[in-house]
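To close the section, here is one more complete example, presented without commentary so you can practise reading it yourself. The ligand is zinc ion.
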Amino acid sequence: MREQIEVLVKLQQIETETVQIKSALNDVSQRLEDLDSGVKIFEQTIEAQERIINDLKKQYRDYESNVQLNLEKEQKIQAKLRSVKNNKEYQALLKEIEDVRGKNSEIEDKMIEFLDRMDITETIIATKKDEYINIFERAKSEKESIKQNAEASEKRLAELDMESAEVSGLVDPKFLKRYLIIKEQDPGELAVVPVKDAVCHGCNVNIPPQLYNELFRCDSLRFCPNCQRIIYYIKPS
Ligand SMILES: [Zn+2]
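Output:
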């Protein structure tokens, strides 16, 4: 009888471990996806900053060519100035030059502002790229270890499967049936539990003294009157 109990406990351990491993394996693909999407999100923040810097550069180049155009315009006015006939015309051209210079000075102020913004954005990008290397490497090694663990778990599952078949074969079919019925009623719960100091470890309720004595003799399969689990005696502490 004691052997039968031991075999049932063993079977239960195998099943408990199997359930734990399967539930961990269920999370594997989600965990891998989460790591990938963390990296992806970080890549997107860098890409967003790169779009910003490209826009700033483009705008800066536009400013540069506007400044150039205005300088050419000014040169043309200066040339006209040399062949001017009267004072009114002369004053008008001077005014034009003043306007063009005013425009350029406004654009140049903008350009200084853009250089600052470009500097800031470049710094952000450089910092993020440094961080990215770390994030990428960390995710990579985490993914590797998840995959390795999953492989080991698969191997263990196959072992457990074999052990389960082996151990099931050692159980008296009558007992196995009872065990399976209890298991079925409460999947994930223990079906075989020890009784220590007359307390059932399945439900923490005291069992009657008579039953406790019978349990000690260990001559037949016994059940907790409270939780109906298969119970077995272990030495009081
Ligand atoms: Zn109980």
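Once you have examined the tokens, check your reading against these statements. The beta strands are 192-196, 199-200, 222-223, 230-234. The chain has a mean pLDDT of 95.
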